[in-house]
Structure formats: structure tokens, C-alpha cells
Design brief:
8 helices, mainly alpha
Amino acid sequence: MVASDDEAPGLFGEALALPGILEWPFELARVQLAYGERLRRLRRTRDARSQLAAARDGFERLGAASWARRAATELGATAATRQRVNGGTSLTLQEREVALLAATGLTNREIAARLYVSPRTVSAHLYRIFPKLGIASRAALRDALNAGPGDAAH
């Protein structure tokens, strides 16, 4: 976890290749999740997707719902798929999730805890979301997200 970006892939590879690792399915899924998160942050999304999908599937088999959700959230963030909101504005899946949580009144810190990101990352997402939705405050988020294609969001 504290290894340099150059060393990390090799160390994760060693952990995943340990003899008997399949006998420890929860630990295996945790390593896959951590590796996938690291790869995503290094912008190696294709590699990250395989690790994150394996982690999600492993957690689901074990019935570890909260861990499976965390892996699924990370996996969704690798897709960089955009959703159209308000007749033309596009948000990434992560931006949409942040916007929806912020619209419920959660603080950046609370949103960060739910999405397993830093409060600073939440702030950066909100910084990009506001101009996309044509708003200037958190108070306008709910209305902007619920506005139909012909509605103006102000």
C-alpha cells in the first residue's frame, strides 16, 4: 500500500501468486480490490477493471455486500461512461453519484466516506459538476438533477 507506483504492480502480483491464496477468498478479494484501486489511480483502467471485477465477484460469493459495493463503485469509476442530464449535460458515473449524494444534504466528508474517496476528490467532482449543470450552489443540485430535457436549471 505504501510502495511506489513503480513497485506496486510487482508486489501485488506476488501477493496474488502466493501458494494457497485461493484458500483465503476474502483476503484474495481484498488484494484484488486494493490492486484495482491502485491501477485505476494510475489510469491503467483496463487492468484495473479485471482486478475490480474479480474482487466484486469474490465479495459477492462470500456475501460481503459492503465490500462488493465498494468494488462495484470502483469498477463503475473505470468505465468513464457519461450520462446525459438536463438535456445535454453529461456527467460521469462518479460525478452523478457525488451529485446525488450532495443533493441529499451530505457533507463532502460524508460523501467521501460512502464512496471510498477523499473529501478533496468530492470537492473536485463538485467543482466540475456545477458548471455542467449550470448551477452555482449545492442547494440547486436536486432541482438540476430532476429537471427534464426541456427544463432550465438555474
